[in-house]
Specification:
Elements (H helix, E strand, L loop, with lengths): L12 E5 L5 E4 L1 H7 L3 H4 L14 H12 L4 E8 L5 E12 L5 E9 L3 H21 L1 H15 L3 H10 L2
Antiparallel strand pairs: 1-2, 1-5, 3-4, 4-5
The structure holds flavin mononucleotide.
The site of flavin mononucleotide has 19 residues, from strand 1, helix 3, strand 3, strand 4 and strand 5.
Protein name: Histidine kinase
GO molecular function: kinase activity
Keywords: Kinase, Transferase
């Protein structure tokens, strides 16, 4: 049975990718939690830690935001090399050169608020079903509707979940 690995308080899991999402840097905590060696992750697509419970909708949001030069926050369930998993509260930002061109991406992952994970697991489960039955565009619509129902933008919603009691 896959087991959950819990991030310790204060942990910062960081990675950098090129424009295609190939990993060009991972810190020690990235390697420790994902249980990979540097050699195994360098130049690999970032989906090396993708968990099958993650809706594609969330990654579509992620890529749409960062390609436009905007940062994004997301709860992500990642898999380890041995098929265990760990939840993170992630912030992904574009790296920009002096001419305002996006030249790569940077991400920092922290310990998630446990109360938020219950809400997110339900939301992701619903999104997965919608994507499977009706396609990714309906998933995107459903996530937008969910945000609207809370009166918040996507990033505001995720941030408020992280700061909720
Ligand atoms: C800087 C950066 C960090 C990312 N971090 C993760 C991550 O921790 N877990 C993950 O599953 N995908 C992450 N992604 C998204 C992956 O590139 C990919 O879109 C996702 O795993 C879904 O895989 P797919 O695009 O092959 O469907 C990250 C992307 C970028 C640019």
């Amino acid at each position: 049975m896959p087991k959950e690995i819990f991030l310790q308080e204060g942990t910062l899991i960081t990675s950098k990718t090129d424009l295609k999402g190939l990993i060009v840097y991972a810190n020690n905590d990235f390697l420790k939690y994902a249980d990979f060696s540097m050699k195994e992750v360098l130049n690999q697509p970032h989906n090396i830690v993708r968990h099958s419970d993650m809706p594609r909708t969330v990654f579509k949001f992620l890529w749409d935001y960062v390609k436009e030069g905007k940062e994004i926050f997301a709860y992500v369930k990642n898999r380890t090399k041995n098929n265990d998993y760990y939840w993170v509260f992630a912030n992904v930002t574009p790296s920009i050169d002096t001419n305002n061109n996006v030249i790569g991406y940077y991400s920092v992952r922290r310990m998630p608020n446990r109360n938020a994970i219950a809400t997110i697991e339900k939301l992701y489960n619903d999104l997965l079903k919608i994507e499977q039955q009706q396609g990714i565009n309906k998933g995107v619509e459903a996530l937008k509707d969910f945000c609207k129902s809370t009166g918040k933008t996507y990033n505001e919603l995720i941030f408020s979940l992280q700061n909720s009691k």
